[in-house]
Design goal:
The protein is mainly alpha-helical and 95 residues long. It has a single domain, classed as Winged helix-like DNA-binding domain superfamily/Winged helix DNA-binding domain (Arc Repressor Mutant, subunit A, Orthogonal Bundle), CATH 1.10.10.10. The protein is 59% helix and 12% strand. Strands 1-2 form a two-stranded antiparallel sheet. The chain starts with 5 loop residues before the first helix and ends with a helix. The model has no long low-confidence stretch (mean pLDDT 89).
Length: 95
């Protein structure tokens, strides 16, 4: 995953500064993503555990975890007896 921000990429590509709203949204998304990755890097966790540990809404956490899984930043590693998957940080993301 590139270390350059999406906002910076757009600014360089189009030579236009994004609106304050877009910049704020991008920063908030990065902050949320980093919170989730940090919690998951401490060991495999279910979505409810990640939501609890980050203080995020369960629905928002679900969306982020599934999106991060789709982008191979998080990976499902085991299924609990209750039927929840535990997610961990993919090897290349966490190292």
């Amino acid at each position: 995953m590139s270390k350059i921000s999406t906002v910076k990429q757009l600014r360089e590509k189009y030579g236009v500064k994004p609106s304050d709203e877009v910049s704020a949204r991008a920063k908030e998304q990065a902050k949320t993503r980093n919170k989730i990755v940090k919690v998951a890097s401490s060991g495999p966790k279910t979505i409810p555990e990640i939501a609890r540990d980050t203080g995020l809404d369960l629905r928002l956490t679900t969306w982020y975890v599934l999106t991060l899984t789709r982008h191979k930043i998080l990976v499902p590693v085991e299924k609990t007896e209750e039927g929840y998957w535990r997610y961990a940080v993919a090897a290349e993301e966490g190292g």
